[in-house]
């Protein structure tokens, strides 16, 4: 446990030094997410709004800003991890990947430590923005005082598990930027960040249920926008837990395969 | 000059095929296709085809899907041109070949011409794929004034090239591609009327669209494709684009020369 803690701390310091060496980092932490959020909000401008809008079948018009805010908050949590996993390729380029895998460090602790540190570093600023913005939007219907902390916990845990899984995927490939394209924007479209997945046709719904963010966002909106009780949320929570369990299992299996593959091909230091 | 352009064209094509296997090309195509998908889902499944009353008045047509799909395709085209040209010098710097490029007596005009020609091939491919996918999802091409649209497309390439020179200088100044380019692209997507008409924005934000060549280029291209407008009907947009190109060209040429000198002194000196 002590070793795990020190490993986690070392990873946090490394990520911090790696990312916060210049003030430019604040662009990716705050400026881009805010511009993207505002662009998404205005993307709805060409459509008919108001009480009788077809949108009301899924979200009330007043709750649209809150719907987008929660969507983007969830997306930023997950996006940070896609980005951090993509940066695994830098470990390969810099030659540090080999050092990590030669050391006796617990591989899973390394993966989840990496996810946790990049997540906390990556979301705090936009998180503060969303907290501030929540005071200015209508439509908040909390399940209770415990709803915001629980929503945060759901996002945190699910995002870390997702991040660990992505890191393993990126271990397999040298040209990992392709995965970045495949995993980043589809998440934005299909996971209910901007549009409700319930409105989608069946084939799109199938894709949306492949992303854990879909389940996490559904829970968060039930907690913050629909005043749902814990009992009514139990099925959704169970579903998310099952998806996370599958992801953790896949991470463990794939990690072994990736290490074996890298040892066999010697591509741990190739880029 | 044409020898240099040809050599740059062949080298860049080989690099693209051998060293960076298609990741940027596929990335840009996907990005455009996702915009198409978003427009399709939002229009058909969420809003059941119902538009705001002002939309037709602001755009001159009530064909939202063509509006949004062309926006996505043209935005991907602009991003691709800007990235390929502006990153050329800093990529040379990163790969260690910039010193050789700067020391050879080759004309810089030829170098950039080769770059543009090579990236034209790429963007034409990307653009065609996005438009084809768009046609499946509801883009109407039957009213297109083909020659006007092609000419606007070519003129837009010139405008984006001039903007890319400024972006390239900034990249060399900051020694960064990631933050500089993505900040510009995020602002471009917001203020240039890619997925919604610019007048929907607050009045104080709208002038930002005026300094982006994408806004008049996209406006002119949409009119040629959706309404079949002839070239003279979009002349205000073309003049706007030409004026912006001139300003960006002057700043860009000055910036690139300055940055080259700075790079020579600070890195190789």
Overview of the structural elements:
- The complex is a heterodimer of chains A (271) and B (269).
- Chain A is an all-alpha fold.
- Chain A has one domain.
- Chain A contains 11 helices and no strands.
- Chain A has helices spanning 2-19, 25-42, 64-86, 88-94, 96-102, 107-134, 147-172, 177-190, 202-208, 212-225, 230-265.
- In chain A, helix 7 packs antiparallel against helix 10.
- Chain B has helices spanning 2-18, 23-46, 53-59, 64-95, 98-103, 108-136, 146-174, 178-191, 206-210, 214-226, 235-268.
- Chain B starts with a helix and ends with a helix.
- In chain B, 78% of the residues lie in helices and 0% in strands.
- In chain B, helix 4 crosses helix 10 (214-226), helix 7 (146-174) packs antiparallel against helix 10 (214-226) and helix 7 runs parallel beside helix 11 (235-268).
- The longest helix of chain B has 34 residues, at 235-268.
- Chain B has 269 residues and is mainly α.
- Chain B has one domain.
- At the A-B interface, helix 2 and helix 8 of A face helix 2, helix 4 and helix 8 of B.
**Low-pLDDT residue spans of chain A:** none
**SSE string of chain A, helices as H and strands as E:** HHHHHHHHHHH
| Backbone CA Rg of chain A | 19 Å
Distance between the termini of chain B: 28 Å
Principal-axis shape of chain B equals globular
Structural category of chain A is mainly alpha
Give the count of helical stretches of chain A: 11
> In angstroms, what separates the terminal alpha carbons of chain A?
34 Å
Strand content of chain A: under 5%
**What percent strand of chain B?**
under 5%
Give the total of domains of chain B: 1
Give helix % range of chain A.
over 70%
| SSE ordering of chain B | HHHHHHHHHHH
The counted number of beta strands of chain A is 0
**How many distinct beta strands of chain B?**
0
